[in-house]
Each structure stands twice: as structure tokens, then as C-alpha cells.
Known about the structure:
Elements: E1 7-8, H1 18-22, E2 28-33, E3 36-41, H2 52-56, E4 62-63
Amino acid sequence: MEHELAHVDAARCSGCGRCVAACALRLFAFETHNWKKTSVMQDAERCSGCGDCVAKCPIDASAK
């Protein structure tokens, strides 16, 4: 069964880091563009699709 990968909407991301902390596989990292810090998935191939990152996002910037 194929799982859905989470992604981060950079326009909505506040850079709080909750998704980064929630990911047990440590697939997320921070990037800075135009002085704005956002979370990005670094290794999508390893994503299990568990949804922990999505559940922790307080502003729904992470989605499946």
C-alpha cells in the first residue's frame, strides 16, 4: 500500500519547528529564504507517512 508523503507549504510555515521535532525519522530541516525560516522535508523517500508532523503543525502548513 502506498502512503502519502507530507509536505510543507512554505508560504504558510512559521518556522516554529514542531514538525521537525515530531518526525522520529528526522526527515525535516530548516531552510532560510529571504530572511524567513521554513521547514522542508529533506529525504522524502524515507517518509513512512505516519502524519506526526502534520498533527503537530499549529497552522496547518504541513499537509498530506
